[in-house]
Amino acid sequence: MKYLLPVLLFCNNAFAEITAITGRVYDGDTFAAEIILDGAKVRANIRFINIDAPELKGECEEETIWAYRAKDRLAELIPAGSIVRLENLKDDKYPGRVNANVILPGGRDAGDVLVSEGLAVYYGGGKRINWCNETKE
Known about the structure:
Elements: H1 5-11, E1 18-27, E2 30-37, E3 40-48, E4 51-52, H2 61-77, E5 83-91, E6 97-103, H3 110-116, E7 121-122
Parallel strand pairs: 3-6
Antiparallel strand pairs: 1-2, 1-5, 2-3, 4-7, 5-6
């Protein structure tokens, strides 16, 4: 299946919340999940929309350190088996992956939490942040 989003939107009632059961955390901005649609489960990888975390295979040791901090923190926020709400779903450039805002129990946006803790940045495209210097520019 090339694009997952049209299937999700077709199967989902437009007024229903889209919930997901979290799985493995891959890095600071991507995790595996089972999306729940009318009692059925669809497996997908979820990438935070408009959020960028450092890469595990960073360009320097500092970026790699930040990347593992972000990954570990995300794993604390959404341990495997957690229920989260997905909003603003969009297709990703990679098949089987969906971009979304991830809302934690209690209503906080997981991406906003990571940004507020300095473990990720808001990202709208273009040049990525340089995690290999103190100023993160």
